[in-house]
Amino acid sequence: MSRVLLSGMSGTGKSTLLEAVARRGYRCVDTDDGDWFDEQRRWDTARITELLESSETLLVQGTVENQGQFYHWFDHIVLLSAPLDVLLARVRSRTNNPYGRTAAERTEIAHCHRTVEPLLRKGCTLELDGRQSVQRLADTVESLLRQPISG
């Protein structure tokens, strides 16, 4: 069993995928929910380290500035991506998260798609197309979670 980090821009379907994998019985943590951040909106080192030490099989969802310092804990770093027009359409219509409804937020998403996503791509071990069915994406992530822990 292994640890997987799921990362990506707003609107790619990370939360939906996380929920689908959780329904399959895997431990999943959405770091957008709860008290995972320090005052700079980075992952709190002590809390994230404690989480990663506590489970050998784990799917963590989050996209934060300091996530790279935790990559060594993960067996797989998955980037969930989609074209910008798909992201913007999804954030306009989603009901589970208000982020992306304003023009300013959509401008920020476009900026991050252009500047942050390429950095995430460089650090990932696998990129998945967020336009695929949730079932197919969950099958892929589950197969990663079932792999033996490396090292």
UniProtKB/TrEMBL annotation:
Xref: SUPFAM superfamilies: P-loop containing nucleoside triphosphate hydrolases (SSF52540)
Gene3D superfamilies per the UniProt record, alphabetical: P-loop containing nucleotide triphosphate hydrolases
Record Pfam families: AAA_18
Name the UniProt record assigns to this protein: AAA family ATPase
Source organism of the structure: Nakamurella aerolata
Higher taxonomy: Bacteria, Bacillati, Actinomycetota, Actinomycetes, Nakamurellales
